[in-house]
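Two proteins were folded this term; both appear here.
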Amino acid sequence: MQLTAPAGRRTGIRDTDGMAVASFVLGLLGLLVLNVFLGPSAIALASVALWRGTARRGRALLGLGLGVADLVVLAAFMQADGTISWSF
């Protein structure tokens, strides 16, 4: 039984690229719905992807920015509405 990956396969890079794309998608969706959950998730995934050295650095930075924007939008709507939830 082999416990390690084959020598020719780089395991961490593909995972970090997926994290970068996922952070972008979650940040984009978070602008529309569930930004209290999707914003921090996008920030966390983008941070891990950047820390691990993703090849999709721009996508991870966009995910990070969109995650922060999700929280800013949430704070603005909460301030205007006076509640934790917001509606149009």
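Next, the second protein.
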Amino acid sequence: MSILPLAADLPDAELGQFGQDPWWVILLKAVLIFVVLVVLTLFNIWFERRVVARMQHRVGPNVHGPFGLLQSLADGVKLALKEDIVPKAADKVVFLIAPVIATVPAFVTWAVIPFGPEVNFFGHRTPLQLTDMPVAVLFVMAIASIGIYGIVLGGWSSGSTYSLLGGLRSSAQMISYEVAMGLALVAVFLYAGSMSTSEIVAAQDRLWFGLILLPSFVIYVISMVGETNRAPFDLPEAEGELVGGFHTEYSSLKFALFFLAEYINLVTVSAIATTLFLGGWAAPWGIENIWDGANSGYWPLLWFFGKVFLFVFLFVWLRGSLPRMRYDQFMALGWKVLIPVSLAWIVAVAAIRVISLEGNVNRTYLVAAIAVLLVLTLGLMFVGEGKDKGTGVDEAAEAPHDAFAGGFPVPPMPTGGAVRGAAAPLTFSTGRTTVTAAAEESHE
């Protein structure tokens, strides 16, 4: 327990150094963050295609520019020149605003991400961070939550059944995994004694929280993959069942904004993981012992983006390795596993924190109590799993189904489930009959 940092031992990172910069420094920082994120998006698209191609023994993009580096730029230009289509049934105002609502928060969250220490920035001493605040991490979580509205409104305003289902599925997924993600960060707040991103980085001067709070780190990594709708959790964009998901009806630049938001969110959650669990911009262990300037000047940018790219590679690796999960299994993972384990771990961390500060409790009993708590939590996850199996199927089959309720026609499955070969004609309650082409041929 002696390796755990105490609140009294934390360095005093003054927030007063933020908000004192001239207007041109603030503006230049904001422009540089915007440019870096756009360039990173182009690079990450190329990087993902190249890495997955190598995993599948293919070449990948290699024509446009050296090593195909300009392929992402060529795809962006092609996408911008495509026809911009607005469906006739769409709510045009919401349809146009939704991609903007999804994209803007992705940029805003980077305002409180620390890239490095205080440096000489065009003759002015300033930290490599746009701004900071006592509740910076809560600010990131709040702004990231706004992006969900863009996805939901995009799916709803399209006037399409598949877009609506994709938007609802995406919102349920992101909200569910934001709960687990937020709980994973509580342990970091307890040990850092602050919600400021710069102070959390300073609190990891001796040991990274990714090791001290390993369960929180694992929960956060799983949650960030679900939060960004990436494989194997890319269920809102499941082509086999929802076509393209919430952005099925989008094209041209509006689709590009959704695409941009996804890849910026990918880098954003990676940057948050780097800041809260891997020491932020601090150099890896041992480097600062042999090189005094490792954590000064602009060199910390190298360590920061190096750690971020490790997480980006993890995203790509998962996409090229794991199959897509079933939706009910995925939601059960979030609500029945991640959230209960997070709650139990928070209780354990809080107890350890009290012992570290007061030191008047027998640690043997504490460890035993924590072990019992974890066992009970894992056991409760499996209670009631088999009680509801085999019930409710006949009741659902007997319930009347109005396929055209709510204005979104969803034809029901044939009686008795799916059939092989030509499907039988479907007769709805209104008297209308739909006959498949294969069924017509069989009748002839």
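The CA atoms of residues 110 and 268 lie 7 Å apart. The two ends are 80 Å apart (CA to CA). These notes refer to the second protein only.
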